Every structure is written in C-alpha cells, then in structure tokens.
Amino acid sequence: MGERERWGTRVGLILAMAGNAVGLGNFLRFPVQAAQNGGGAFMIPYFICFLLLGIPMMWVEWSIGRYGGRYNHSSTPGMMHRIWSNPAAKYIGVLGLFMPLVVMTYYTYIESWSLGYTFFTAFGSYWGAPEFEPMVNFLRSYHGYTGLDLTAPGVGDVGISYFTSVLPAYGFFAITLAVNVWILSKGVSGGIEAIAKIAMPALFIFAIVLVVRVLTLGTPDPAFPANSVATGMGFVWNPVPEALSDPSVWMAAAGQVFFTLSLGLGSIHCYASYLRETDDVALTGLTTAATNEFAEVVLGGTLAIPAAVAFFGLERTQEIASAGFDLPFALMPTLFQQIPAGQMFGSLWFALLFFAGVTSSLAMGQPIMAFLQEEFGMTRKKAAVVLGGIIFALCQPVILFNQQGFLGEFDFWAGTFGLVVFATIEIILFAWVFGMDNAWEALTSGSDMKVPIVFRYIIQYVTPIMLLVILGSWVINILPPVLRYEGVNPDYIPYVRAARLTMVALFAGLCVAVGFAWRNRSLES
Amino acid sequence: MSMNALGWAFLITAWTFVTALTIWCFWKVAKAGASYDDK
Questions:
Q1: Residue A157, SS3?
Q2: Less packed terminus of chain B by CB within 10 Å, N or C?
C-alpha cells in the first residue's frame, strides 16, 4: 500500500466536512421544522440539542476517525475494531458502510434532479405555467410516473411539455454519478478537497444572493397584503411559548440537529481519518458544525419558506411544506416564474442545491472507496469505478419504482433510522467500552482549543442518554406502523418488501466482505 | 402574522449566536494556522 492520503489544508478539510453537512436539510427541512414546532421558541430546544447532542457527537466521530486513521483505517469496521477488540465490533462498523452506500444511491438521484432543473430553469422548459399543480405534474412526469392527469384544464393542460419517459431523468442521473465517480477517483486532496474549495464558497455566494432577493420581495401582490415576506419570517420565527412543554418539539429539535450535521453516517469518521495523529480535531470539528449552523439558521431559515408564503400565503405553504421534495422541485419553480429575472435566480437556486448535494454525496462515497482500497488493495480509480457500478445497479429500482416507494423506504431505514442506531452504538462504545479516559485523550490531543471539561461528562452521560431516549421513542412510536405498512398503498407493498429485502441482502453482503477482509488480514499477519 | 417583537428577538439572538460562533471558530483556525503544516 502506498503512502496514506492526507488533506492538503485545514481550510480545505473544513470546507469538505461542511460540504458533507450542508445539504437539502439546511435549506428545506430546517425552516419547515421550525415553523411546525413553535417558531422562534423551537430555537431554544434546537440550540440546547446542538450543545448537548450535536457538538459532542461531532467530536466523538472526529476523534474515532482520527484514531482509526492512526491504524490506516478509513472506514468504520476497522475503527470499531480498534476501539473494541471484540470480533463483533467490525460487524457493527458495517453500518458505517451500509448507510452511506444506500443513502448515496438515492441521494445521487435527487442530486441529479437539481442538475436537471438547473437546465430546465435556465432554458425555461416549464415556463408559462406558474401554478403549483402543473409543476407537480412536471416533476412527476420527469420521474416517469404513470396515471397522471395531464389533460385537465389548468392542472395538466397548461401549454407546457411534460416528459413522456424517465429517460431524461436517467440521463441526468448518469451525468451526476459520473461527476461523483470522477471526483472520487481524483482522491481526497486532489478531488474532494479541490471541489469543496470551489463548491462551498459558490454555494454561500448563491445563497446570500438569493436571501437578498427573498428579503426584497416585500408583498408581491398588493391585493393580498397578508402574503408577504414579513409574514413568512413571522411564520418561521414568531415564538409559540407553549411549544416548549411539548416533548415532540424537543424530539423534533434533536432530530433536526442530528440530521443536519450528518451524524451517524460514517462519513465524518472517514474524512477525519486522513488527519495526522497530531492534528487538531476539536477546533476543526467545531468550525464545521458552526459553518453548517450558519448555512441553516441564517440562510436556510430565510429562503424557501418566507418566499413561498409571500407568493402562496400561509395556509397553502403549510400544506405544501409537509409534502417533502415537492417544495424545492415544484413550489420554487412556480415562484421563479413570478419574479423578474426568475430564470437566473431559479438556476442559481438549483445550482445551489446541486453543489450542496455533490459535496454531501462525495462524503458518502469516500468510506466505500476507502474500504475497497484498504481492504481489497484496489487502486483509487478501480475503487471509484466499482463504487459507481454498485450505485448504478442499486439505483435502478429507485428510479424505476420511485412511485411505488423504493426511495422512501431506503431513506427511512438507512437515511433516518439507521443513523440514530449507529450513533447510539458508537457513543456507547467510545465513552464506555473504549473508556472515557482514552476517549478524552483521543479528542483533546493536538487540540487548538481548550475543550471545556464539562463536555467530558456530556459525552459520557448526557449525549448517550439523549440518543437512547430518541431511539426508544422511535422504536415505540414510529417503527410499529412502518413495519405494519400503515399508509402504504396495498398495490405497492410488494415493492416496499423488495426494497427492504434489497437492504438486508446488501447489509449481509457487506458483512461477508468485511469477514473476508479480516480473514485476509489475519492470514497476512 | 407579521414578525412580532419576540420573533425579532429570537431571530436576532439566533443569528448573532451562530454568526459569532462561526467567526470565532474561523478566527481561532486562522490564528492556529490555516494549514496543518503551519503548526
């Protein structure tokens, strides 16, 4: 094996790690969560969870990553093996391969929608139908949905061309995947870091331009004075004090902090493993968390929701905001058609989402790349091609059976539930099995800031308890209806089952690969 | 439902906290050396 890859500069690492965290969640999930959970009052549990859950977990994952890198491990099976010398540890670490692989599969697809919409907006493909329903139909036709009512006056038949097959979506997906594979094949410093240094400043510039545009929208239609940016900002920020006594608001805040920082995925560990033993993790980790929070609280809270309220009013926005990806890909195109220079601002919006997506999907791909390179001796290029092939194969059902719930199923198990499971296990292993003395040493050695001693106790007691409470609440309240297929169209249940079986087979396959790699290691030693 | 005084208070506090934390972090990073080799 050649010399271990390293980050070129600390700023490059911060931007790459911030790029991992900054994604669709910052610009879409956060304002919706804030608005639905007490407005400004949501900020109280949100910042408490940021201090007690977000920052400690970031530091735990950075520390585990750098510690694993000391033994030439850049993926979590090896890292877990190093902090717990039990044969089962490496299989727990499989979660840190399984989840980024599954999430990257559908995330790359969603990312490709942003790329497609950047072009559709720039060339005005959907221009001329500034209503929400036709834009939903446009999106659904792009996804290859069948049974759409494209002839109903005002809903479908509005003078724009819909897609007649899923082929354009395939095309943009193939381009997006190729871009990811190409960047990953260039390596950590030459690929990921180089792209982050361009994409992250561009993302922030685009976001700031859009924030200024949104804040100057005022009241677009004087006939509806209530539909204004001020009302939208009030919707996101006006506090509802009673929300603070509602446990579900605290759960929502904890969940938002958890997902926005991309915790429990395996990507942070991987990026941190390319640090030297003497490099700082405490300050660098905190800086990436702060950068993510800036993108979320300052920029994210000011974009989609206030703009949507200004054009569609409060009620309609609330209704649409709960509909997931309809917001960026159906609502925003409706809005861009109603503002001057809408094609330019719309293209900026989708380019912003694309950059946010690419920097995140690269972070999901790198743990698999590292695993293939380190455990199977593949070259960077070969590992990138193998990863691209796996993602391409796994994405076929996601593209073809999106309507039947394949994407949603992957997102729930790997992109939501699995993250909380892995984070809970890893902090318990780190603080209690590896031992808090070793854990504190792993965090503070080489540190460029004094980590307050109170975090030693937070990492050991508070964060694990918070995660156990979140996990327990999910197991009790959310899992049973999911396992009973509640709310799933009966015709789609076989597809949902197939999605679950695919994930089980993938997890088993990764366990076999890890077992095989470890057998080779022991033979070599 | 325009922004009320409490809404402004929460917005200003949250934005100030996050912006100050980000600036402080980057200032510390710059002081310690933007490159790891500077240490």
A1: strand
A2: C
Q: Do B22 and A290 touch (CB under 8 A)?
A: yes
Contact B34 A278 (CB under 8 A): no
Contact of A276 with chain B, judged by CB distance below 8 Å, is answered with yes
Work out the angle between the directed axes of helices B5-32 and A282-293 (0-180°, nearest 10): 150
Dist. CA A217–CA A214, nearest whole Å: 5
Name the residue among A230, A298, A448 with its Cβ closest to that of B32: A448
For residue B14, the chain A residues in CB contact (below 8 A) are: 40, 43, 47, 297
> Considering only CB atoms, which chain B residues are within 8 Å of A228?
2
Helices and strands in chain B: count of H runs, count of E runs = 1, 0
> b/e per residue, A55-88, with b = 16+ CB within 10 A?
bbbbbbbbbbbbbbbeeebbbbbbbbbbbbeeee
Q: Which of B13, B2, B22 is nearest to A43 (CA)?
A: B13
Size of interface A-B (CB pairs under 8 A): 98
How distant is the Cα of A112 from the closest Cα of chain B, in angstroms? 31
In sign, the C-alpha dihedral spanning A241, A247, A249, A255 is positive
Of A237, A293, A314, the CB nearest to B7: A237
Angstrom distance (rounded) from CA A127 to CA A135? 10
For residue A38, is pLDDT > 60? yes
What pairs with residue A411 in β-bridges?
A: none
Q: What span, in angstroms and rounded, lies between the C-alpha atoms of A387 and A353?
A: 23
Q: Is A154 a residue whose pLDDT tops 80?
A: no
Q: Does A448 touch chain B (CB under 8 A)?
A: yes
Instruction: Report pLDDT digits (tens) over B11-27.
Output: 999 999 999 999 999 99
Across the interface, do B1 and A234 touch by the CB < 8 Å criterion? yes
- Contact residues for A415 (Cβ-Cβ < 8 A; gap 6+): A99, A102, A103, A106, A107
ipTM for the assembly: 0.93
Least confident of A97-101, A102-106, A132-136: A132-136
Contacts A54 to B, Cβ<8 Å = none
Nearest-angstrom CA–CA distance, A150 and A393? 31
pLDDT one-digit tens code per residue, A481-518 = 999 999 899 999 999 999 999 999 999 999 999 999 99
Instruction: Give the pLDDT confidence of A304-323 residue by residue, as tens digits.
Output: 888 888 988 888 887 776 66
What are the residues facing A58 on neighbouring strands? none
Furthest-apart CA pair in chain B: how many Å?
53
Asked if B29 lies within 8 A of A287 by C-beta distance, the reply is yes
Portion 213-242 of A in contact with B at CB < 8 A: 226, 228, 230-231, 233-235, 237-239
Residue A178 to residue A173: CA distance in whole angstroms: 8
The mean predicted confidence, pLDDT, of chain A is 91
Q: Which residue of A has its CA nearest to B21?
A: A290
